[in-house]
Amino acid sequence: MKETETMSDPTTTTMTLDDLRRILSESAGSEGGQLDGDILDTAFTELGYDSLALLETSAVIQREYGVEIPDKVATPRELLDSVNGSLPAAG
């Protein structure tokens, strides 16, 4: 059992802000927005992420966590709430 493969593990029960930061950075490449500081309630557009970057982010989240993201998530908090609310409960 490999402990380093946690993201694609179907037993993953929580997506953290750090996980989201990693996915956003990977999805948007070097053209991504600023992800430092308290960004939970900052609109993705204010962070520099357009609809294409969010589409790629949604695809990565769907692949890694097995959940679909609604079209109308405006902030990192909304996205995390949506993902974590769709993940199976631990136990």
UniProtKB/TrEMBL annotation:
<feature type="domain" description="Carrier">
    <location>
        <begin position="14"/>
        <end position="91"/>
    </location>
</feature>
<dbReference type="InterPro" id="IPR020806">
    <property type="entry name" value="PKS_PP-bd"/>
</dbReference>
<dbReference type="InterPro" id="IPR009081">
    <property type="entry name" value="PP-bd_ACP"/>
</dbReference>
<dbReference type="InterPro" id="IPR036736">
    <property type="entry name" value="ACP-like_sf"/>
</dbReference>
<dbReference type="Pfam" id="PF00550">
    <property type="entry name" value="PP-binding"/>
</dbReference>
<keyword id="KW-0597">Phosphoprotein</keyword>
<protein>
    <submittedName>
        <fullName>Actinorhodin polyketide synthase acyl carrier protein</fullName>
    </submittedName>
</protein>
<keyword id="KW-0596">Phosphopantetheine</keyword>
